[in-house]
Amino acid sequence: MRAVRYMGHGAGPRAVVLDARAAKPEAGPGEALIRPLKVGVSPADILMARGLKEGGDLEPITLGHEFIGIVEKVARPESDGAPISPHETSTLRHGKFAGKRVVASPVISCARCELCRGGLGSHCRARAILGVHGRDGCLGELCTLPLANLHVVPDSVDDDDAVLALPLAGAIGAAQRVRIEGRPYVTVLGDTAPALLCAQVMAKLNASVRVLGASEPRFTLCERWGIKHRHVNEAGKRGDQDVVIECSGTPAGLETALRLVRPRGRVVLLGDLAPASAPAAPPPPSFDLRAAVMREIEIIGSLGGPIGEALHLLATRQVDTTGMITRRFKLERAVDALAAATRDDQVKVVIEI
């Protein structure tokens, strides 16, 4: 089986390779064997392609967690793991997925620890993250996931839209972390795909939204959607924004957000701050958080969001994804795709399996 593999810290310029002899995954009890169709290149994929591994796990792993795929087989919950083909009739929950197009939550939880039992499965103490830590990802010809992680894609949502469901869910999750009252001033800091989707979501909640970024080519999408935009270096930092959603995932982005938000305003951090486990990575710049205390700024982390709601917005055309996929590659050129995704003129790079 072919798969794009992170080879572990210390692999140097060949940190990521296309492995033509990767082991074929087997679905365990209550899991599905999935054939990915399209995979979006994520920030985590780019970090690992640079040799920076998140989470401290230095073991090789197959990349990818933003995908649309077809369920090939579903394993029964019994211990024998006997597969159910898409052609079998089943009255069990398995019949909902066999042969269907699906997207998925990348966080695999244990369902047993106190956090899982308390409804915080995404923060499970034993969690694995598809393509990042503890579970091979979807950037290959086959992958496996628990049925509990899967969401069937409506027929009205095409594959290009579906591959953006996970970053859209993250944007919805960030919007849900703040209360929209009246018509607040909202700044989305960053011009990544999640940032651009977040700007659309916030605008639909009656917020006055602007995007601050650094890539002029990406601003054309904001113009199409009627969303204000400026280069981040041209915007005044007057401390007058009700909400700032920081999407760059950098310490410098957080520092800028704190200068933009008003006293008792809210800063939402969408995305991870810097990979902590990469010895070769430069240390993050330090800055003074006392301003957040003195001005009583609320800093909120946001991890993921409701994928079902994201699919609903896509199915009902409430979010415009036209033009967000800016380049496509075949699996055999996946390493080139990872390099292309770092360019300022690209919004979302997709690999077709």
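The above is record 1. Record 2 follows with the same two-line structure.
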Amino acid sequence: MNRLMLTTLLAIKHNYKKIIPLTLIHCLFFSHIAFAQEESEDVFPNRPITMVVGFGVGGGTDQMARSLSKYYAEELGQPVQVVNKKGAGTLIAANYVLNKPDDGYTIFASGFNPYLTNTILEGNADYGIEDFAYLNFQWFDEDLIAVFKESKYQTLQQLMAEIRTKPKTVRAAVVRGSGGHLIAKLLLDVTGIPQENLNLVTYNSGGKARAAVAGGVVDFIIISAKGSESIREYIRPLAIISDSDNEDWGAMAIGKAVAPMNVDVPVLQGTIRGFATTTAFKEKYPERFAYLADAMERTLQNKELQALLKRASISGRWTGPEKSEELMKVNFEVFKKYAYLLKM
């Protein structure tokens, strides 16, 4: 045995009472860290949630998400950050959400019907409605056909006659891929008016479309009624896409409005706004998905939030995951029947 090895052994023998406790402390320390990390991962959520809105700032879906976010954060115990990913009829936002980790920290806020539907039916999307798990459909709306308040058009029949006889002179605003977009196309189709006769301007957000008609930039708009309270004084309704008249807006049902033209227009479900995650997340973490849904239901029971939503004319309905998924499937099939018009 050489001198160096002997010296080392003597040092260990002399200090073993100090070395063993120190080693034990190190083991306990690192075990505690590992346990804390594992425990932290089991607690959900343990960091901020991102709510991705498929439209620009100021539209109905954006207002719904921002109104809910503060109260939802209180239920979750974590901040809820709202970000906007507008464009391509919510295609950009949908892809953004699907490309995020499937861990529950990203929630999609959108007008799932008809926007998500149309991104699929138009053939641009690589996903299907089954790739999303719907937490709740909160806001159901009917589409309003309204003209600028100083417009010369008094009836829908008069407006359509102008489009027929004076091509390209009438301008309309719709949100790209919306129910209003499809209704505009349907009106032209059932009345036998060439699609190119109408100067149809498509926007990526309801806020911009409403600003266009309120400012007289376009002659009329077809858009969700409940989200149009902010421009009520600047527009005059001609019809509501419903089976019955709307007394609040003073708008007649679409069937009555087109009756003088001897045509029928199908009553399509308007915008259905709500929240979803990816299906992959729900399948991977079903308990987390249930927690997000339960927290959202409790949030919508908050009286302060409900008062806020009422003042803003935003619905605060709790539909739940199962019913929301069922509605998504039914409405997808309805819009699928007329989707070809959006490609014209």
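The domain at 143-261 is CATH 3.40.190.10 (D-Maltodextrin-Binding Protein; domain 2).
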